[in-house]
Inverse folding.
């Protein structure tokens, strides 16, 4: 393999060094391109541009491969606990039993949030979207833990900031939901596991002895693992670029939550269920809607199909599809919206139009279905995605800081006016 890529501009040749990753991915290092050639690259959405080198997550879009620190998504989803995967992503290795126990114990110490956070929470109207509440409450942690503002503190202090947000995010998420419902909040129950505690904070009601359904807790554990990281997606890149200015972990995570909120990213699972509900309200004719999806003049957009990176299938979708079937069966769920989903899925997997365009059901299609079956309200779907993605965001931020990466500052190609003289107001 050559060590350089040759670039010719106006007859002059330039040699650009090649970099090769541990999975033999090849990148062209353009770090000196502008200085040497005066030219820059242009790649809206950065679909062909590597922003960094990372050892956290590997994905192969052509072959549907996803690995966390080298472990396949299939194995960790089947065999691991979410906090085990959280530790793996952030610290690079699967924890020993002692490391895991200490990690869980540290998190349990910090599940409560400052009572003054309730004053912030109660300031939101009940129609506030939980993602906006969550990003605000996470950013408020910079005020309650001002020492977290300095990202260059000792590793022990950074680890404490990490444990605090891992511990408090589920509480904040559940409280955001309760605030939207106008219901009293539930305080953490540290006798329970991470997922069981979240479910109890979400669904327990006063004077009832709420028992977590183990089927639901197990499914939620798997869902969080499947969403834990996905290399340089929109929200992870947001966390990195905000953190690259030496903004704090909490400010960077809050920015990541806001990036995830968009319907083209983490908001897709909510958009899927809203699409299914609309189809149900219109009579549930899936063939009609799949025909609308093919009609480029029709404003209907099919949500939850295809993926920017995975060209053949999303490995997470395969795992979630089976989990969804298992959960629906175990819980005896009979939901017309879910039947509509199965109808859309069948057409998408069989109709040449969708097969040729790789429009297969993706992770957002099935996650919306399973969250609904678990009783998670639609407006909380993206919050669930955020709870799963939190370890990945933390790992990406930590790696970026430990590698002393420079501040992110992309360039542009200017397309505006050439120089012109100012015109006085009266002469315009
Ligand atoms: C994700 O998991 O972040 C989504 O699949 C989006 C992406 O990777 O671009």
């Amino acid at each position: 393999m050559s060590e350089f890529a040759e670039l010719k501009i106006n007859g002059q040749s330039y040699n650009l060094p090649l970099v090769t990753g541990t999975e033999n991915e090849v990148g062209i290092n353009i770090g000196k391109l502008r200085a040497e050639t005066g030219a820059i690259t242009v790649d809206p959405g950065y679909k062909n541009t590597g922003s960094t080198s990372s050892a956290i997550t590997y994905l192969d879009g052509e072959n549907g491969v996803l690995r966390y620190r080298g472990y396949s998504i299939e194995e960790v989803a089947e065999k691991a606990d979410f906090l085990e995967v959280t530790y793996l992503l952030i610290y690079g290795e699967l924890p020993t039993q002692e490391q895991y126990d200490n990690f869980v114990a540290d998190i349990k110490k910090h599940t409560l949030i400052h009572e003054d956070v309730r004053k912030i929470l109660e300031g939101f109207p009940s129609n506030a979207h939980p993602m906006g509440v969550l990003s605000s409450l996470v950013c408020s942690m910079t005020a309650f833990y001002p020492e977290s503002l300095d990202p260059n503190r000792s590793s022990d202090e950074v680890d404490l900031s990490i444990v605090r947000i891992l511990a408090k995010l589920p509480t904040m998420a559940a409280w955001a939901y309760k605030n939207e419902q106008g219901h009293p909040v539930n305080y953490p129950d540290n006798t329970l596991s991470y997922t069981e505690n979240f479910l109890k904070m979400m669904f327990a009601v006063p004077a009832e002895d709420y028992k977590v359904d183990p089927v639901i807790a197990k499914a939620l554990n798997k869902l969080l693992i499947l969403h834990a990281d996905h290399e340089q997606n929109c929200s992870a890149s947001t966390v990195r670029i905000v953190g690259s200015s030496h903004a704090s972990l909490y400010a960077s995570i809050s920015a990541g939550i806001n990036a995830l909120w968009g319907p083209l990213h983490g908001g897709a699972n909510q958009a899927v269920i809203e699409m299914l509900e609309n189809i149900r309200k219109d009579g549930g004719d899936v063939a009609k809607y799949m025909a609308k999806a093919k009609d480029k003049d029709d404003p209907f957009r099919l949500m939850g199909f295809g993926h920017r990176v995975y060209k053949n299938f999303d490995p997470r979708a395969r795992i979630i599809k089976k989990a969804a079937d298992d959960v629906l069966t175990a819980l005896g769920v009979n939901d017309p919206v879910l039947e509509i989903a199965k109808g859309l899925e069948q057409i998408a997997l069989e109709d040449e139009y969708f097969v040729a365009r790789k429009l297969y059901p993706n992770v957002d299609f099935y996650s919306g279905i399973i969250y609904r079956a678990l009783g998670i309200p639609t407006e909380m779907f993206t919050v669930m995605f955020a709870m799963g993605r939190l370890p990945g965001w933390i790992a990406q931020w930590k790696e970026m800081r430990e590698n002393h990466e420079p501040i992110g500052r992309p360039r542009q190609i200017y397309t505006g006016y050439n120089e012109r003289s100012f015109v006085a107001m009266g002469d315009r």
About this structure: Residues 155-181 form the longest helix (27 residues). The domain at 4-50 is CATH 2.20.28 (Rubrerythrin, domain 2). The chain has a mean pLDDT of 94.
